[in-house]
Amino acid sequence: MKKVWFLALALLLGLFLSACSGGDNSGSSGDNGGEEGTEESGSNTEQVLNFVNGDTIPSMDPGMVTDEYGIQFTGASMEGLYRMKDGEIVEGIATDHEVSEDGLTWTFTLREDATWSNGDPVTANDFVYAWQRALDPDTGSEYGPYMMGGVVKNATAVNEGEVPVEELGVSAPDDYTLEVNLENPVPYFESLAAFPTYYPLNEEFVEEQGDAFATSTDTLLFNGPYTLENWESTASSWELQKNEDYWDAETVQLDKITFEVVKDAQTQVDLYESGEIDRAGLSSDLVDQYQSHEDYVTVPEATLAYLKMNQTQSDALANTKMRKAISMAVDKEAMVNEILNNGSIASTGFVPKDFVKTPDGQDFREANGDLVTYDPEKAAQLWEEGLEEIGKDSVELELLGGDSEVAKISDEYIANQLSTNLKGLDVTLKSVPFEQRLDLDTNMDYQLQTSLWGPDYVDPYTFLNLWLTDGQNNQMGYSNEEYDTLIQETTDELAQDKEARYQNFLEAEQILADTAAVAPLYQRARARLVQPKIQDVYINSFGPTFEWKWASVGSEE
Amino acid sequence: MLRYILRRIFYMIITLFIIATVTFFLMKLLPGSPLSAENKLSESQREVVLEKYGLNDPIPVQYVNYMTGLVRGDLGISFHFDNTPVTDILINRMPPSMVLGGQALIFGTIAGILFGLIAAIYHNGWLDYTSTVIAVLGTSIPSFVFAGLLQWYLANEWGLFPVALWGTYAHTVLPTIALAIFPMATAARFTRTEMLEVLGSDYITTARAKGVTESGIIFKHGLRNSLIPLVTVMGPMAVSLMTGTLVIEKIFAVPGIGEQFVSSIEVLDYPTIMGTTLLFSVLFIVILLVIDILYGLIDPRIRLTGGGR
């Protein structure tokens, strides 16, 4: 008797389960096509790559993008005056340009065969419109004023509503000539012009879409190597498809790149191992496990990590000797090898390695050498002298840092190194979310802070202007007149003289080291698993992280 | 009954109003600002951007603006997703979480009741001990451990189901199982305890004496009476399952609301945080009402009449 209803129950459960699967299967059978595509990627007929993305794309409006992914996908599907290829500036919508003798007027010649995905030609007016829009206060763009302010003539005045947008220093004498007037000579303007904020926009289309512009595939126009398909702003999967109407379509090898949002690093790796995706990011806790994997690669970025020392909050940090002691007291080699463990390299200066070359072709970092290195004895000695100067025998400092797992561990390490190597120093940690850290930074409400900076264009200026007396990012009370003058000169009287300009940069960096403005920590790298069959994907030091225009799928080996 | 429901709905609206108000002001206390490039902008440039989002208005004005929008069903525009209405985000992110939560709830409850029943019937036998052990493990081991194990064995090693991602029905299986463990264990525990109590009570003895069949005793008299406490705990659990779980959604890369909610908080997307909180509250309140009505269906003793409260 008992057995009978027991069986009946089991049957019921079985029925329920099969009913569930039956019902839902029919509804989503269309999705199976996507999975089959994965297996085809190796064949010759179609070149397909399957990637994961760490998050959704919050914006595809070139004038509004601020985040890594927005910049990445506007970069893949749209194009500005120039494009970056392996650190070099190459043709985009512009074929060439001329710079006036005073360096203030740039005249770009545009190609006549570039079109938008609705068939309209890409003209100089599209640039004028887009740039004016990025600065129009009504647009509310963050990067517009940031990337163009102080560069394009009247950019800041336009953004603050002091003059109408028409006063912006950009005009179109004819459809294929773009004339740009700058506020100061800006030698790195070419690389700025490769950044999404400087991309053109089709006025008629943008106005027609209104607020809906760039919120989905249907409300976007493309003029780049790929088109973005099946996307809307909250989408968790989308594709890049070869843009057949792109002016250089014959260079583009890939037919399609698919993307799925996967935030968890372990899941990315699992998907990679099961062959569903062709690239996975590795967080530092996974590196140990996959370091010996044959597809393991590390790619250094041009992003620097450093310790900010707020001189307004502590008399110890206002003392140059003590700041210097701090900058020498952290074993950075051990930090990158043991703690970060992802290919990051110890940083010994204020401009990253492999980022820019001096006029005589030497890497900037090599030209100036290792300026700040680990030296515990020297540090201890300087620290003691400093303590005497401020008349104390012990100092307590608070270290402000991010709240991610990696940030906490590395901050813990830094605090430990400082407390161990500098007698009488006690460092406590304060871990807060990113947005809050920005707030505390803006209000100068911290003592020590670990911070990162990535470049906005290819020029030492993007790193070396950070510590100017009134610099937006200074926020720590650092001020050195000699350094200010040297850096200021690179944007006015020396702007046209490459040799002297770089000489100034080299000297300015030396001053930062001598006065211990910040303590360099490391140059960040990222560890990934990447299918060896993927070829010619370039990594940019600024703007879109990956450049897929020249990418292709080779043989499996 | 109808009057009772109407009165409950009126209270629900008041509760929602209070929740919206409290959330709004709590949000204003959060440190940081939604600008992503804040430290790169000058003071006046920051003003320009804040103006666009209406964050320059005094807080009472912002509050009134928000509440009037709410009455019209407008949850505002996301700060993070450009020009995307919060309602769009909710509509996009709710379904996967609801599907997973719903499946886990149904599967977990049914399996749990079964385990509980078996344990109660074979009281102190090996089936009882086995199901108790399962229940204890299910409540004490965090779901992400199960998720990891399922992913490793069922997906990576044996290739039965996809590792992660969202799309086909097969994609829902592993996250559903991982999510179902907890409700299953809870249901099993409650059912077992209640069943034992009910089966030991006088009216069951009476029923037995009258010659009611064993299955009649267990299902008609026993189970029905043991479900009441279960319904009480399963209600809130249903809400927490339907509103998604950060961990499960992250591990299985499911585009659900639970994960979205946490990332909205990380980027200080106020309108989305508000909208999600309100949606969760509505769900919760509605489910509580449903439970109260369910009580009456299960147990005639607490059936509600007009002035019966």
What's the structural blueprint in terms of helices and strands?
The complex is a heterodimer of chains A (557) and B (309).
Chain A: H1 2-27, H2 32-40, E1 48-53, H3 68-77, E2 82-85, E3 88-91, E4 94-99, E5 105-110, H4 124-135, H5 143-148, H6 155-159, E6 170-174, E7 177-181, H7 189-192, H8 203-209, E8 226-229, E9 237-242, E10 256-261, H9 265-273, E11 279-282, H10 284-290, E12 296-309, H11 315-318, H12 320-328, H13 332-340, E13 345-346, H14 364-368, H15 376-390, E14 395-401, H16 405-421, E15 425-431, H17 434-442, E16 448-453, H18 461-464, H19 481-491, H20 498-514, E17 518-530, E18 534-535, E19 538-539, E20 546-547, E21 552-553
Helix pairs in contact in A: 12-15, 19-20
Chain B: H1 2-29, H2 43-52, H3 59-71, H4 86-121, H5 126-140, H6 143-157, H7 170-199, H8 202-210, H9 214-242, H10 246-251, H11 257-266, H12 270-298
Strand segment tally of chain B: 0
The sequence of SSEs of chain B as H and E is HHHHHHHHHHHH
Quaternary class = heterodimer
Which regions of chain A contain 5 or more consecutive residues with pLDDT less than 50? 1-43
The coarse overall form of chain B would be flat
- The average pLDDT score of chain A comes to 87
Work out the largest interface and the residue count of each chain.
Answer: A-B, 78 and 64 residues
CATH architecture of the domain at 300-526 in chain A: Roll
User: Over all CA atoms, what is the radius of gyration of chain A?
Assistant: 27 Å
End-to-end gap of chain B: 11 Å
GO cellular component, one term (chain B): plasma membrane
Protein name (chain B): ABC transporter permease
Subcellular location (chain B): Cell membrane
InterPro entries (chain B): BPD_transp_1_N, MetI-like, MetI-like_sf
